[in-house]
Amino acid sequence: MKKLPQDVVIFMLLKLPLKSLLRFKSVSTIWYTLILSETFFKLHLKCTTPKKDEFILFIRTLREDDPYKFTSIASFFSVDDKNNLTTLFPDVDVTHLTSTSCTIFNELIGPCHGLITLTDSDIIIVLNPGTRKYVVIPESPFDCPKGYYRFIEAVAFGFDSIINDYKIIKLSDVYWDPPTDDRGPRGSRVEIYNLSIDSWREHNIEFSSIYFTHCSEIYYKEAVHWFTIQHDLVILCFDISSEIFRTVELPSVCTDLNGPRYGLAVLNDCLVLMSYPDSMCSIGHTENVLNIWMMKEYGESESWIKIRTISPLPIPIESALVIWKDHLLLLQTQTGYLISYDLNSDEVKEYNLNGHHESLRAIKYTECLTAIPTLSEHSKQVQQL
Questions:
Q1: Residue 117's beta-bridge partner residues?
Q2: Which residues does the UniProt record annotate as the domain F-box (predicted)?
């Protein structure tokens, strides 16, 4: 092996799965240095994009014997050609990584260079699901003034390609909390954390309140996307590098808030919008239909086209989760179980994977060498799940 040119060695190593690469760091000092080098990392990042290499991470909540206690479980899967799930690692109990008694508030954000953020709004962790290493992000030092109430609207995560750093963004509403318990005027607060320097800062910028639905927060094109209401329902975007908010209009028939739910996903490298029945809606005329709209030109509202209608839905669903490998639409049923709908064959498959009502979260990722930066000596350090 010593006689092989370095470019040949690099070519060979790039063909290996992440698990083998991590083991081969122990072959020699030269290989250790090579595999952890910035050059190799960038090459490996470009090689881990095929859809066949996509895996899935589920976070789900299970109720314990005590009706007021819940357990939060992380599950890692791959899928075969027949849409069967294969476990990559044993399930991991991540209840200790949440601060709420009911962990249905967990959200998964990303992926970004193979990294994912898991948060319940109070506790935020950055996780590499391929290596199962994670770090708990220190709390923001900014408090509310006395007599005010703070409500966290959303947490975002992404990569700033200009300064070559990862950022976490926390969006909050701040209300005056008078003695009558009625909320006073609303103010907004944006807090940004830079991972490389382990530091929070405040950003003086206003934003519209987030209209939360499941599968409504997505990282795409170095921006994070949510829904917000500005006369009608629109997509609110936050650009990670410029730290500027902007909005994108939805198709004109997708602004009704009195019937369907809406979700965002990525399909064939394009942003897509899903509309489907709201299980909590009392209006009886809600159709049992799931529509998928695709934005052909990102940022151009006029480029929305409807690409698929699933009618009727084979099973009553609670929420859309993610589109995996550009054909497998994952959904949580109203009974709490995971099902898939194959957009190519129309095949429906139910899995032996379930969670508490509205608790199932899913995010697709590719295994990557991305190292989580070591934080300052006063912060929690990188740990292993």
A1: 109, 126
A2: 1-44
The three-state secondary structure class of 43 is: helix
What does the block give as tokens for 285? 């005329």
Q: Are residues 135 and 255 in the same domain?
A: yes
The values of phi and psi at residue 283, to 5°, are -75, 125
Q: What is the DSSP letter of 302?
A: G
- As a whole number of Å, the end-to-end CA separation of the chain is 34
Taking residue 182's Cβ as centre, other Cβ atoms within 10 Å add up to: 9
Return the axis-axis angle of helices 38-47 and 6-14, rounded to nearest 10°. Answer: 40
Q: How far apart are CA 50 and CA 17, in angstroms?
A: 13
In sequence order, which ranges of the chain are alpha helices (DSSP H)? Answer: 6-14, 18-24, 29-35, 38-47
How many distinct structural domains can be found in the chain?
2
Query: Residues 319-335: pLDDT tens digits?
Result: 899 999 999 999 998 88
The length of the chain in residues reads 385
DSSP-assigned beta bridge partners for residue 348: 341
CA neighbor of 106 nearest in space, from 57, 172, 65, 173: 57
The string of pLDDT tens digits covering residues 103-155 is 555 788 888 888 999 888 788 999 998 888 898 898 888 877 777 778 888 89
For residue 42, give its domain range: 1-47
Containing 173, the helix (H) or strand (E) segment is strand 165-176
The pTM score is: 0.84
